């Protein structure tokens, strides 16, 4: 349920326009009307054609959340970093898919969220807003309700959800900070890999040097765009593939997956407007990698 009080500047507005300004899409309104939700003005159920006045109370009840029948609910012991009635942020371990596939219908983060909600008797759907590659660890954001996922999607289009990544790259990166602005496309010889390609989609990665080892560099990254494998492709193009990332030229001598971790998530809450910052500590395998390549701290 969502609730608002009408302000003076919203006087005589149609409810349709009012809830649209609050982020309720036409699709959402249709679901509310036909799938078990409700729209109430001062406690009375009304249609979107009703006009509102200052001080009126508007409440929306969303239809009950349903999940895909193919999503298996599993207790995977997820580490929850943040949770409220609208959102959940979890720490995805390396080696876990974000969503299930036909070949691997179990063991994904989505399966684990379904199991978490069922165990805690939370009537929520599984709406993942930020995904990570299977072997990338760190912060993942999900919405409990379809409408909140819609709000997050709109925020992503406006670059209003920011993530900071930490990685260890091979070699000694010379610049303390820089920007890689190189378009990315699918590799025509592979169904998995991506390449820097002048005809590809715009891809912009900002990086800063965090620490240096004997022959490795720890970097932090922020993305302007969200292309598949973007950090991995860009660091490889730079001549400094990520440690462990054998798909893009990295060695698996010290770590057997790409040394890439989504460390921080930053956004304004899509419902309350509260500023959120959620941090995930470095996992043990990257800490061990740091030590093995001569990085202190």
TrEMBL record:
GO molecular function: catalytic activity, acting on RNA; pseudouridine synthase activity; RNA binding
PANTHER family (UniProt xref): MITOCHONDRIAL RNA PSEUDOURIDINE SYNTHASE (PTHR21600), PSEUDOURIDINE SYNTHASE (PTHR21600:SF35)
GO terms for biological process, alphabetical: enzyme-directed rRNA pseudouridine synthesis
Protein name (Swiss-Prot/TrEMBL): Pseudouridine synthase
InterPro entries in alphabetical order: PsdUridine_synth_cat_dom_sf, PsdUridine_synth_RluA-like_CS, PsdUridine_synth_RluC/D, PsdUridine_synth_RsuA/RluA, RluA_PseudoU_synthase
Taxonomic placement: Bacteria, Bacillati, Bacillota, Bacilli, Bacillales
Catalytic activity: a uridine in RNA = a pseudouridine in RNA
Uppermost EC category: isomerase
The keyword Isomerase appears for this protein: yes
Key words, A-Z: Isomerase
Functional note: Responsible for synthesis of pseudouridine from uracil.
